Predict the structure.
Amino acid sequence: MRENLVKVKPKSIREKKLAFIDIETTGLNSLKHEITEIACLLIESKSWRVLKEVLIKVAPCDLENADKKALRLTGYSKERWKDSVSLKQALNRLNIVAENAMLVGWNISFDWAFLVRGFERLGIKHKFDYHRMSIAYSKLDKIKYDSHLRLSKIAPQLGIRNWKEHSAMDDVRVTYVVFKKLMEM
């Protein structure tokens, strides 16, 4: 006997919300270093309208293993992080903000390595869409760039200047503006 199954047509990718993500960390190794900031811009994908901006300062647990250069680059200090939250609180908040959204970033593989490690270590199931999109390569054939795909090299070529590099919220905003400019090309 065959059951009548209702087939649900999957949402078009153009109907999904986009969660532009940028993180800052205590170093480059996701197995040893920690997230210190998570910035997220939730975007309506048809109009490119910003629906929500979130910046979460995360309290590192193991500053002994932190790369001092990374802390300097991101401006980490106990005073600036006095209102920070645990990684568990940060990831739960991110899950609420970006539920079912597709993650987008300049170098999303770096960000995702830290995020997924945190989710797994804390036993939290992430609620994002399974698609992730890096914009580092999208439409770069339309502009002249050297061999470096750094956001700090590409953004000025598109007329985007004067932001605080290695600040999660500033970097995610610039990533979003670069994305929009590239999509208009």
About this structure: Residues 105 and 123 are 24 Å apart (CA to CA). The helical segments are 68-74, 87-97, 108-122, 151-157, 168-184. The beta strands are 17-25, 35-44, 49-57, 102-105, 132-134. The domain at 17-176 is CATH 3.30.420.10 (Nucleotidyltransferase; domain 5).
